[in-house]
Amino acid sequence: MNNFRDKLVSWLFETEALRVCPQDKPFWYTSGAIGPYYINTHFLYGSEEKANNLLKIIDEVKKDVIGCPGKVLEKVLENYKSDKIFKELIDEMVVFIKDNPKLKSYEYISGGERRDWFFSIIIAHILNKPHITIYKDLKAVLTDGGEVITDFLLNGKKVLHIVDLINEASSYERAWIPAIKNLGGEILWSVAVVDRMQGGSEFLESNSIAPFSMINIDKELFKMALDSNYINQSQFDMIAAYLDNPKAAMTKFLKENPQFMKEALEGDEKTRERAKLCLDKGIYDLNS
Description:
The protein is of the alpha/beta class. The protein folds into 2 domains: 2-39 and 228-281, no CATH class; 60-217, Rossmann fold. It has 12 helices and 11 strands. The radius of gyration is 20 Å and the shape is globular. It starts with a helix and ends in a 7-residue tail after the last helix.
């Protein structure tokens, strides 16, 4: 597993699934907060371009609730056969699930719209398990042996949910858990490609779901990245401070670099909006 973790760290940077900012220019997040890294796990599909192309295909086919799972599987299988990084990642996840004694009694695999499907549909196919395709509106269809079933109940069956990325588990709370419960089943396990370590695993545990991840966004990951020269010492120091206390680290940065906010307020439309949102919400105490 350690060798795999080394490879996964390299893949995260090679596909730009994980991007680290220069030490003097943190990223603006949609929330109006700032931070030192972005994570787009679905880029492990091979590249940003490949991942975005699949998302476009999903957006085109998801209106066809019955046909969507098969069409996504067809595209993902094509990529699995041709993209070395994606194939190795999927193969490692399959081995992890097969060899983990805590994951022996699941009967179904589920994945939620949209990015979960990059991983869940093909893993269910390889493991020869029925797959539950969950949509954001809580609709769900079952694919079993190539047949897609819309009218079904799980009758207490045990489900393993596969996700690309776990943050705070808000999608679980809003959609994935209720969708499976509505069908009479239970999600008892979750396997994530990446855990951002933002409380999602704790939420799952509080709902009797055992969480697993292939890698965590923590200091150990960034130390491996530093040792492999994917980031420099200044970037690592900024990330380490952020992981210890995101708000305090970014407050300190803004106070020490007042021009950063000034330039953001004079920047492009998206940056201006996020900077104004930051100030309006009072995310950082810049007056104390």
